[in-house]
């Protein structure tokens, strides 16, 4: 059966064999002069001579058809308009070529191919409204300035980053920690469809592979590898975004972090990164300066910047109530009433008005937070 394989199909098989990781694959391809067909036709003795290849991996490679159904995979890919971009293809994200252990290929859904600098915006799944707002704002402005926004389509900061890029009419790529036929988290199905329609959804995992503790770090390394910089908006000290930042450092990418409140655990990781040498960013201009990109003029940008958006009209009380949230304060209605010396009913009405204008939102603990 190996005799009927071509280079691309052989790479698809190697990528789909779950017992062979990216580093082992790179060593195998090096040992066989980068010929994936030869790897699959290799004899046991030579396979075992490759560092890291044991008896189990050798058996899987020699009897790959028992572990990977090539014809079924191709059939499912065609049905879902998914292509496989090999590392040697022109469409393969260029910065991934610089990695120590790049994927040998990516499953790719969407017509978009990387044609501009990429920046990753990542963070916690349990994001605050402040985190959502910053991620969306940064993604919107950066995409308008010609960057592709890359993230992992997880809940929280990742979702806000993708949404910000889409709302600005920019490009965004979601890298998943599962097969492209699985939408995770499931509530992001509409977001998945929007990204695939205008940008791309990518994964190095074969169809049917579900997310687990192993796949998420592998996904994070691809997110970091695709980009010139990784911006962490909110993260706990042991959050997954810290893994992405570590990969970025190992790959020589810029690491940036947004500062937050010192009394919120969701800011602990960002503050740790800043303490360890990451660049603190509080605006898109900080990001451009660090990447040594000049902000284009309005005519060059070709898209309206966020500052041109309409201004929401507020009455005097609404403005006073909104001022109580300066500095990222989380406020209870009773506290606002006492601070302004205004009746609770009036403050509640003002808060409702601000909610309708999407300037504040009520949290599960009863506090209000400004967007």
Task: Give a brief outline of the structure.
The chain has 371 residues and is α/β, with parallel strands linked by helices.
Give a structural overview.
With 371 residues, the protein is α/β, with parallel strands linked by helices. The chain folds into three domains: 1-68, Orthogonal Bundle (DNA polymerase, domain 1), CATH 1.10.150; 109-307, Rossmann fold (3-Layer(aba) Sandwich); 316-370, Orthogonal Bundle (Arc Repressor Mutant, subunit A). The protein contains 17 helices and twelve strands. The strands form two sheets. The chain has a nine-stranded mixed β-sheet, sandwiched between helices. Strand 5, helix 9 and strand 6 (200-203) form a beta-alpha-beta unit. Helix 16 packs across helix 17. The N and C termini lie far apart (59 Å). The relative contact order is 0.09.
């Amino acid at each position: 059966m190996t005799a009927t394989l071509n280079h691309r199909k052989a790479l698809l098989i190697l990528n789909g064999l779950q017992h062979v990781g990216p580093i082992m694959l790179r060593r195998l391809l090096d040992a066989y002069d980068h010929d994936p067909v030869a790897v699959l036709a290799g004899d046991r003795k030579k396979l075992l001579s490759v560092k890291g290849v044991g008896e189990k991996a050798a058996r899987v490679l020699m009897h790959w058809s028992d572990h990977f159904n090539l014809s079924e995979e191709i059939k499912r890919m065609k049905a879902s308009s998914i292509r496989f971009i090999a590392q040697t293809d022109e469409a393969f994200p260029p910065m991934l070529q610089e990695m120590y252990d790049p994927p040998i290929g990516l499953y790719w859904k969407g017509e978009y191919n990387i044609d501009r600098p990429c920046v990753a915006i990542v963070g916690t799944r349990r994001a605050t409204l402040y985190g959502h707002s910053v991620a969306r704002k940064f993604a919107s402005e950066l995409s308008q300035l010609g960057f592709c926004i890359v993230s992992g389509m997880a809940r929280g900061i990742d979702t806000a980053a993708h949404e910000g890029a889409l709302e600005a009419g920019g490009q965004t790529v979601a890298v998943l920690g599962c097969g492209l036929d699985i939408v995770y988290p499931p509530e992001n199905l509409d977001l998945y469809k929007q990204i695939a329609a205008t940008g791309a959804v990518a994964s190095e995992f074969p169809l049917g592979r579900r997310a687990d503790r192993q796949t998420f770090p592998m996904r994070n390394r691809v997110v970091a590898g695709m980009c010139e910089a990784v911006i962490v908006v909110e993260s706990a000290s042991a959050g997954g975004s810290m893994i992405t930042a570590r990969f970025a450092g190992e790959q020589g990418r810029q690491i940036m972090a947004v500062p937050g409140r010192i009394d919120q655990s969701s800011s602990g990781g960002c503050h740790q990164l800043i303490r360890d040498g990451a660049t603190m960013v509080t605006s898109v201009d900080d990001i451009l300066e660090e990447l040594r990109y000049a902000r284009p003029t309005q005519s060059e940008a070709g898209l309206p910047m966020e500052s041109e958006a309409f201004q929401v009209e507020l009455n005097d009380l609404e403005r006073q109530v909104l001022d109580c949230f300066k500095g990222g304060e989380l406020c209870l209605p009773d506290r606002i009433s006492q601070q302004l010396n205004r009746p609770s009913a009036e403050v509640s009405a003002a808060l409702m008005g601000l909610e309708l204008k999407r300037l504040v939102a009520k949290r599960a603990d009863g506090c209000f937070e400004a967007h």
